[in-house]
Request: fold
Amino acid sequence: MYAIRPSDPPASPVRSRDASHDTRITLDAIYQPVGYNVHMPKLTTLDGLKQRCLIAPSTGCWEFQGCRNTQGYGQVAFLGGMRQAHRVSYTLAIGAIPEGLHVLHHCDNPCCCNPDHLWLGTDKGNSDDKIRKGRYRGPPSGDSSFSRQHPERLARGERHGSKTKPHRCPRGERNGGAKLTESQVSEIIVEYSRGKISQLALGKKYGVSQQIISAIVRKEVWAHVSSIQ
Reply:
């Protein structure tokens, strides 16, 4: 397979007036094997980008014929670096892209560089556009999520593992992050119930925060110790 160098003249033979000096273009001068480092003129205009595209008659898309990334977007050298071709097209045709915005496709064709098919959108707009066009590959959400489709298969309430297999849930002193013992928690409950000490003072006494003391007396944590008096 061969690739044509764009900078070469037409492939038709050319002879000088002097028949003794044959200037006919050879096949090797026109064609080079694929992989040859083809020299492309510096991209500075929209027409220059359009020349690197194949126009689809049915859609009007300018399908970029150069290098593409794994998502199908064209890659082109522009302003000293590799850029996505559709973003370069927008920049050349319309102007600078505001920071934080995406260049999206009305045609849903990643390799398209037709500026008439491009529009600016936010992260949310980009995500909404993917979902609307059926290109979102993330887990289902909303009414299509598993919890909405099969609520009967979710372990809730008395069916939850903490209820059906409580021995598997490390509580109290068995929890590696516990800072108190059950006897200390019992003392905290008794002392606070007498009304002679504040939660802040209890926290300082037992080396925990006031929030922990509050959770204990409101039975949000260590609830299984609350009956020990």
